[in-house]
Amino acid sequence: MSDLPLPLPPDRIPPGVPDWRSADAARWLAATPARWAHPLWPVCALVVAMVWSVVAAPEAPCTPAEPCGTDWWGAALAGAGLLSLYWIWRLPRLALLSLGATAAGGLLDAGLPAAFDGSADLAMLSALAYAVVTIVHRLAAANRQRLLAEQAAGPVKHALPAAAGRFRRGRLSFALASLLLAVGMFAFWQAQQVVGEYEEHAARGTRIAAEVTRVTDDEDVPVLEAASPEGGSHTVETAFPEDHAVGSTVELVVDGEWARLAAEPYDVIGWELLLLVTAVPGLAFLANGATSRLRVLRLCRAPLPALKVLVREGHTDSRTWVYAADDLAGERPVLHFHSLYAVGDVDEEEDDGTEDEAPAAFGTEAAKEAWAAEAVAALKGTDPVPPLCEAVLFGAPFAGAEVVLTAAEEDGEASVECSVTPVRPATAKLFGVPGGFDGMSGRPDGRAGAAMEPTVDPLTWSADRGSRAIGLFLLIVHGGGTWAALGDDLAWHWLLVLVLGMPWLISSVATALNWRVTADQRGLWVTGAWRVRHVPWNRIAGVHHTDDGIRVSVSEGKDVTLSPTGWACLEHRLGRHPAAVRAADEAGALWQDPALRPARHATAAEQGMPLGPVVLALAVLWGAAVLLL
Q1: pLDDT at site 3
Q2: Is residue 14 part of a domain?
């Protein structure tokens, strides 16, 4: 296959469309928001401030004068806060509105003097201010990127391809929003039914003072018994049994056999929570669908700037990666997004009435086998890297924009694709190596093999400091979970979590502390948590480094996976070369070049020994010690 990009048919390139050169693309990337404005930081600050405010807020007691009933205002503020966390990341303009509403609602609820009274309130206001500053900075940076893209595109505007005008966005979001909001409205209606039932009884009943004679809090729903001065006795439910001591006086609302505490008239917390957990994602989906539909309509409204670029489909994540038109090697990506083919990309006037031969060809056994082989290769990561293609990008790209793409295909034709996720600059990730390189590390490219020389002794790669640090951390988590579940008060919910998570946790600890890959003359020996697996060279289909592990693809049988083997992205940021990445690269080079393979077989000691049984024994001993102490 030629190294040149696949050419776009000349008739699919509008006249006067300029190339997006590397110099212009570099200026566009330089306008990316600063790292201090990354959405992660304001979201973390707001979460910490919210938790602090909830913990520091005084718990108001339920009294007949101020009974504990519905708190729709508090639920609305909580929902606005949760939506703000999501919109800061996805829809910063809406986040400005929701943050303003949250701040105004909090001030109205507590009063302006009280908002500056405690450190938790000051922390919340500071987090809100920081979030607003980051959003304004991001919006300003996006505007700069839009202007730079328009300058590079020149004054000539171009109409979208016809297929893009028929592309629809937001239907799935609208459907999910309708379902979730319907459930939320049902929860609100049910809560109002409970409130209305209480008000009917209260209007007919009377209020009496009664003395508490017994409080029971060892049942699913705590109850108390109270005797009225007339000699009657009433049993009522209470959410706060600790507030009612035996011998104290409580005020009851009584309507025949029906009785309730005047301070706790009804309990609709379940319906309020259901409303919150359905309305928040429902409104998020509704906003996603509305903004997606509006952005597509805005694209189709008038002619747009266009740029000639190069594109490539991501090998591991199916993103569309965009490169400058003169970056013929595809080394420096500029931006990325997910896209879908625009339905109806066919010129009906050119239909000659002949039947399409593709379905018949696909139905042949050879075509089915070829398709199956391609699917298996894609799943194993051994399929070839998608080629670079010439393309025309319609719309001025900026962080958060929607764009349309006409790209060359391998059959010599062209396709129209519309973005279904916002444009993201291909800058360095917040924690990790630059995100524009599509996660293709671990695919043998010859560079690891060029630095290696043939050896006699087997080659071994094993857990390094980063991997062992993760193993020790998980071991501490396991010990703390065992203490919480089996401590003085046996916590059944913690015990259930411990039992369900123990197999994964023990395997992860043993792998992170002791993983090993040994290459000898016959193949690879892979030491995991519980066993040592041998994979001959002739059965290996590829060796790859994933986000947190190593995967040895096997041509016949189940792939061999080691996970976790460290936090590669953090180690890259610290200037280190993780052992897992090195193992995948060098083992892949040995698989590619038999001349580099070691000359002798590995001994049992060199193959390694699983650590899983030892970790399991330590876990059992620690659990027994916690129970006995």
Answers
A1: 66
A2: yes
Question: Considering only CA atoms, which of 340, 336, 334, 333 is closest in space to residue 292?
Answer: 340
Are residue 484 and residue 608 in the same domain, yes or no?
A: yes
Pick left, alpha or beta for residue 446 (phi over 0 → left; psi -120 to 50 → alpha; otherwise beta): left
Mean per-residue pLDDT for 58-81?
Answer: 80
307 with 425, same domain: the answer is: yes
**Does residue 528 sit in the same domain as residue 614?**
yes
How open is the CA angle 62-67-71, to the nearest 5 degrees? Answer: 100
What phi-psi label fits residue 21: left (phi over 0), alpha (psi between -120 and 50 degrees) or beta?
beta
Exposed (0-12), middle (13-18) or buried (19+): which is 390, by Cβ within 10 Å? buried
Residue where a domain terminates, one of 153, 171, 189: 153
Both 505 and 380 in one domain: the answer is no
User: How many residues are listed for the chain in this entry?
Assistant: 629
What 3-state DSSP class applies to 512? helix
Helices (H), 111-170: 112-115, 119-153, 162-165
Q: Do 528 and 468 fall into the same domain? A: yes
The pLDDT tens digits for 502-552 are 888 888 889 989 999 999 988 999 999 898 999 998 888 888 887 778 888
Residue at 607 is within a domain = yes
What's the confidence (pLDDT) of residue 498? 66
Residues spanned by the domain of 139:
30-153
| Dihedrals phi, psi of 63, to nearest 5 degrees | -130, 160
What is the pTM (predicted TM-score) of this model? 0.63
Q: What is the pLDDT of residue 448?
A: 53
337-362 mean pLDDT: 49
334 in any annotated domain: yes
Domain annotation covers residue 198: no
Using DSSP, state whether 21 is helix, strand or coil. Answer: coil
**The dihedral sign for the CA sequence 282, 284, 286, 292:** negative
